[in-house]
Each structure stands twice: as C-alpha cells, then as structure tokens.
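Most newcomers find our protein records easier to grasp once they have seen one. The structure tokens are whole numbers drawn from a learned vocabulary of backbone shapes. The record below serves as our worked example for the rest of this section.
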Amino acid sequence: MRMSKIPFGTTDWSSIERVEYAGVTGKAYWRTREFGEIRVRMVEYTPGYLADHWCDKGHIILCTAGELTTELKDGRKFTLKPGMSYQVGDGSDAHRSFTAVGATLFIVD
C-alpha cells in the first residue's frame, strides 16, 4: 500500500454517513472515507451478524469494541477482542466474519 498525496486531516467518524449492509444474519453499518486507492472504514456489526460472502480483499482490521470471529475458507477461525488486529493480503486467504455479541472495527483496505 502506498500512501501519497494525502494531506494531513482528521476524521470525526460520527459525522460520516452510516450506510447499512445486511448479512446472512444481522447488519453491518459502515462509515467510509476514501483517500485515493485507500479505503478507511469504521464498521459496526450488530449481535448475530454473519457475512453474506467470502472476501478475498486485503485488510488491516483493528477491533475497538465487542468481539469478532473471522473464519478462513480452510476452516481456521480467529477471534479479535478490543485492542487486537489482523492483516491479510489481497487474494491471500478468503475469509468471512461473524459476531455473537456485536463488534466495532477500524478497517484500512
């Protein structure tokens, strides 16, 4: 990832429009900013959320609240709690996420 020509700025995430996405179960609420080819999001998952797809996109994800479990297509599972993060490259490991209790994530991709 190359971050160039992005001037210094701050983001008040509460002022960014919240867009709803349905999962197989539960909902995701995204607040998104884009800086050239870099997308930065604050994402909230409701309790019981299960992603409706396997994702091949690379991300760096920091859990700020709740608990998120990410399942890789090969069956491995990893759980993030507040203060934990994960990273995965584009096309590296297909993954999908779910949460029993809800979660808030800060995501760069």
User: Anything to note?
Assistant: The beta strands are 19-22, 27-35, 38-45, 49-50, 59-66, 68-72, 77-80, 85-88, 95-99, 103-108.
